[in-house]
Amino acid sequence: MEILPTTPAHYSGIATLYNSLDPQLHISASDFTEGDRLRDPKFKTQRWIAIEKDEIVGAAYYTQSNWFAHPQKFMIWVGVHPSHQRSGIGSALYETIMHGLQPFDPLALRTRATEACPQSICFLEKRGFQEVIRDIPSELNVQAFDLTRFTGLEDRFQGNGIEIKTLHELENDPERNRKLYDLDWEISLSVPGDLAAGMGRRGFEKYVEYAITGSSALPDGFFVAVKGEEFIGLSHVLVSEKGISLYQGLTGVKPQYRRYGIGLAMKIRGIAYAQTNGYNLIMAENDAKNIPMLAMNERLGFVRKPSLITFEKQCQPSQN
Ligand SMILES: CC(C)(COP(=O)(O)OP(=O)(O)OC[C@H]1O[C@@H](n2cnc3c(N)ncnc32)[C@H](O)[C@@H]1OP(=O)(O)O)[C@@H](O)C(=O)NCCC(=O)NCCS
């Protein structure tokens, strides 16, 4: 077994490895190329592969992003093909990452593992990683969803001058994108857990590309609760796999307008959009601390999947 730095020529083999670890991923070489293109050059990144008899049997990386941002903080990942696990490849890849990080004097490392994979959790705990965040993924079967269960929902707040509009319907508001950018951040700050703190505030252009103009954005699947000129809530779905699955973007309502059914009504609009456009699934992911949204998703019939756990390792000796 040999460990080598990755080049783009390995991307197709790495994609095969990823898909063998999670058959639902459907990742391809071009996803890695696109990841390279989109990555901010200020972030340090390095990938390696473990190769045995010309087959990629493992892969690993360290990288950085706005999430958990600090010049000495890193995200890492190690994966070994199911038929080559328990033969020391993961340990060797992990040691390679740690060696590669030495020149940067890392403060802390993060990685994610699913609770469905106890061996991954054991691997991390043995190396000094501890759970810091738990996210609950869930999925809604869109075509089986009975919209008639929720008719008349919007009547509850329409009398107070509150309406739900799509991005297209708000096209004539020259401040639309700026108002959405500000509302998204205000709501992000109130999401239970560390969404906003972990991510930091992205720039205006980056937000517009992500939510409004980018290839995953859906202006007719983006719903805004408005009261006069004021935007008081938003909820949007984005493309995960074209024609097949969507993922739920941020849903939120300004604190003074909560518990009037506005959040639920916007999510129902998203589900109706998905149904009309032939999508099968909406995928969501919520912090385990987010009791309101988990309760709403349960009421809607989202089915929970095994939790995704973020682990963190402190690399410097404690000051105390
Ligand atoms: C989650 C959120 C969007 C709910 O919006 P809302 O307009 O207040 O919710 P609704 O009035 O439509 O509530 C619909 C259902 O959700 C559930 N729910 C909403 N708030 C809840 C709370 N505080 N506790 C428990 N359940 C709650 C209930 O099932 C509720 O139905 P009910 O009122 O008949 O009991 C809102 O609390 C919010 O903006 N939170 C901050 C942003 C966030 O965390 N977003 C999720 C991350 S993507």
List keywords for this structure.
single chain, 320 residues, alpha+beta, Aminopeptidase, 2 domains, 13-stranded mixed β-sheet, 13 strands, 30% strand, binds coenzyme A
In words, what does this structure look like?
With 320 residues, the protein is an alpha+beta fold. It has 2 domains: 2-106, Gcn5-related N-acetyltransferase (GNAT) (Aminopeptidase, 3-Layer(aba) Sandwich); 138-306, Gcn5-related N-acetyltransferase (GNAT) (Aminopeptidase, 3-Layer(aba) Sandwich), CATH 3.40.630. Helix content is 32%, strand content 30%. It is built from 10 helices and 13 strands. The protein has helices spanning 11-21, 29-38, 89-101, 118-126, 155-158, 176-189, 195-199, 204-213, 262-276, 291-300, and strands spanning 2-5, 46-52, 55-63, 73-80, 108-114, 130-141, 162-166, 222-227, 230-241, 245-253, 281-287, 303-304, 308-314. Strands 1, 2, 3, 4, 5, 6, 7, 8, 9, 10, 11, 12 and 13 form a 13-stranded mixed β-sheet that branches. Helix 1 (11-21) packs across helix 2. The longest helix has 15 residues, at 262-276. The radius of gyration is 22 Å and the shape is elongated. It starts with a strand and ends in a 6-residue tail after the last strand. Bound molecules: coenzyme A. Coenzyme A (COA) binds at residues 187, 190-192, 250-253, 258-264, 286, 290-293, 295-296, 299.
